[in-house]
Amino acid sequence: MDILQAIWLGILQGLTEFLPISSSAHLILMRFWFGWEIGDPQTELVFDVALHVGTLTAIVVYFWRDLTRIAGAAFSADPERAIDKRLAWGIVVGCIPAALVGPLFEDVIEEVFRTQYAVIAGLLIGIGLLMAVVDRLGRKQRALESVGIVDALLIGVAQSLALIPGFSRSGITMIAGLMLGLQREAAARFSFLLATPITFGAAVWSFRNLFKGGVPAEMLAPMLAGGAAAMVVGWLCIAFLIRYLRTRSLMPFVVYRVVIGLATLGKVFWG
Predict the structure, then answer these.
(1) Dihedral of alpha carbons 254, 260, 263, 268, sign
(2) What percent of the chain has pLDDT over 90?
(3) CB distance 96 to 156 below 8 Å
(4) Which residues does 6 contact at the CB level (< 8 Å), separation at least 6?
């Protein structure tokens, strides 16, 4: 893998990880559309670590003040910090479903969906249409501060579905938030806050596997370049989406998902 390819993959990860369009689907469809393989299993593993670290850094840097404030309130007895305390424990509870499902089914899901291009396309379209309906009909009245433990658990259950390519972690959690009556920006903010420990866990899990095989010397530069690209583009995407959703709908992402899904179905069935 050369540095330019690594940077491109980092940009793709940064864009698709935080926008509601499914990063895992794009990585698979990139191989289907362009025949572009990341490389052998060890190369994929090394690069997986770089991308996870890059996207994790983007979330932590953007939400640093929120994360430190919320984490600091987790064990506080101060009534004025009750909302942050509830959010802290909500994030913990919301991570439980994905933490249980991920280690058990991640490898199976990856193997099953690796070449199921029509299914992935169908999920891109189906979840996109669901996003459109919820975005249109959701009450969108509740602020982030209103999120309770049950809300967080329900959004966390939705997050666990994101292991399946085509769902999109940010997309399905924002859909769940909108279904619970959250404002668009509030749904996005909680989605990203909930992603922080999950992304950290994914990075740790990748590191655990990485230590078994080591890092090839020729992968150090691409690894750094790809991780840096994922971090910068990821931060920009978070900042863009948070501002965008204050006044606008999710419809552009719905249209994008449907177009990509239909184009993929066309290529699958008609070449």
Answers:
(1) negative
(2) 70
(3) yes
(4) 47, 50, 221, 222, 223, 225, 226, 229
pLDDT digits (tens, 9 = 90+) for 79-110: 999 999 999 999 999 999 999 998 888 778 87
Tell me the C-alpha distance between 30 and 82, whole Å: 45
Domain definitions of the chain by residue range: 3-270
| pTM of the shown model | 0.93
Q: Please state, in angstroms and rounded to a whole number, the distance separating the CA atoms of residues 115 and 113.
A: 6
Question: What confidence score (pLDDT) does residue 193 get?
Answer: 97
132, 166, 155, 189: which is closest to 23 by C-alpha? Answer: 166
Tokens of 263: 């184009």
What number of residues does the chain have? 271
Tell me the torsion sign for CA atoms 230, 235, 236, 240.
positive
Backbone φ and ψ for 138, nearest 5 degrees, come out as -60, 150
What is the DSSP secondary-structure string of the chain? Answer: --HHHHHHHHHHHHHHHHTTT-HHHHHHHHHHHH-----SHHHHHHHHHHHHHHHHHHHHHHTHHHHHHHHHTTT---GGGHHHHHHHHHHHHHHHHHHHHHHHHHHHHHHHHTT-HHHHHHHHHHHHHHHHHHHHH----B-GGG--HHHHHHHHHHHHGGGSTTS-HHHHHHHHHHHTTB-HHHHHHHHHHHHHHHHHHHHHHHHHHHHHH---GGGHHHHHHHHHHHHHHHHHHHHHHHHHTTT--SHHHHHHHHHHHHHHHHHHHH-
